[in-house]
Amino acid sequence: MALVKTMDMLAACERGKYAVGAFNLNSLDQAPFLIKRAEQLKAPLLLVEPGVIEKYMSFEDFASVAARAAAKASVPVGIHLSHGLDLEQTERAAKAGFTSVMYDGSKLPYEENVRTTKIAVEIGRKYGCAVEGELGALGSSFANVSESMTDPALAKDFVARTGVDILAVAIGNAHGFYKGTPSLDFKRLEEIRYALMPYNCYLTLHGGTGIPENHIKRSIEMGIVKVCIYTEMCHEGKKDTVAYLNAHPEYTGNYDIPEMLAACMGGFARSMESCMNMFMCIGKADSGIDALPFAPKTFTPTAMKSAPAPIAASSVSDIPPNTDIGPAYPSLPAENKNFKATGRFWDKNV
Ligand SMILES: [Zn+2]
To answer: Residue 192 in 3-state DSSP?
Structure first.
């Protein structure tokens, strides 16, 4: 296995009823480190560069290092841009060799989100990479205002008009640590999935940190094939870094930086393993995904760029704990029985 198309990876997830973990990287040396752990777990992996950290890690450098590491991997690895800030950035990532890019127009008025996401899809087609869009406001759980969940009818309109390959949905999930116990709206997820049956569009869940394991698994059973988690990894990385420094009081000036970074990445890897367990993707590396040909590129470090404009913070209200997540996988509405469509879900007759 090696570098693979994100869409092939997601198709395998859907066939096998598991989700791939999309994990943010903070530095280039994290790519081979996380790939090594994924190999030990025999799990597929999506390496993610969020648009907001491009000032530290250029897309070209990231794609070059990640693709080279992926090409040598024994598990399927994809390279993904998360929350692309604008179309220009989206195109640069696609051109650099990412296997999928997210263009996040969710903060724009709906029609503008449709218009710009459609352009992002055209960019993705040009470079042969999948495109993710977002509808609804995922927001941030750091703040405490009401969120806007994805409307199923709008989701259908959005996917039909933009042609996005992957849709990030807001169903009670949010970025960062939750203030209370998050509760996913499974009825809404079912309605979104039903609305998107005619389209070859996969569903992804952002803000995985803190969502109870039974909710994550249930959402995967209901069609989520990619889950993004970052906050928890950061937390575990920081915890191990602090523990390492506390265990070495003799380092008063010249710290053993490689050891400290290794401790930090140990926390990342531990967190990644626990996530992969929830996503039910451990042991799923051999899932019949075709490898992409790898053409080595010259690694040329680029100068740091100026910081992009900060994203305006939006947020969600406290989400009440949900102890009842309802019955097992719900059946589709009866009127669907005669539904004639060529979409993926219908082909599988689910
Ligand atoms: Zn996100």
So the answer is: helix
String of b and e for 304-316 (b: at least 16 CB within 10 Å)? Answer: eeeeeeeeeebbb
Give the chain's end-to-end CA distance (angstroms, integer).
29
In b/e form, how buried is each residue of 20-40, taking b as 16+ CB within 10 angstroms? bbbbbbbebebbebbbbbbbe
Alpha carbon of 179 to ligand 1 centroid (Å): 17
Compute, in angstroms, the gap from residue 247 CA to the centroid of ligand 1.
Answer: 34
The pTM (predicted TM-score) of the whole model is 0.81
Fold designation for 6-232+278-347: TIM Barrel (3.20.20)
Express each pLDDT in 135-182 by its tens digit: 976 655 444 334 588 999 999 999 999 999 999 999 988 777 777 777
Q: How far is the CA of 207 from the centre of ligand 1 (A)?
A: 6
Question: What is the residue type of 59?
Answer: F
Distance 256 CA to ligand 1 centre (A): 33
C-beta atoms surrounding 176 within 10 Å:
17
Question: CA separation (Å) from 316 to 89, 130, 207, 322?
Answer: 27, 29, 12, 16
- Taking the centre of ligand 1 as the mean of its atom positions, its distance from the CA of residue 49, in whole angstroms, is 11
Ligand 1 centre from 251 Cα, in Å? 37
For residue 102, the surrounding DSSP H or E stretch is strand 100-103
CA of 297 relative to ligand 1 center, distance in Å: 29
Q: Where in the chain are the domains?
A: 6-232+278-347
Helices (H) and strands (E) in the chain, counts: 11, 8
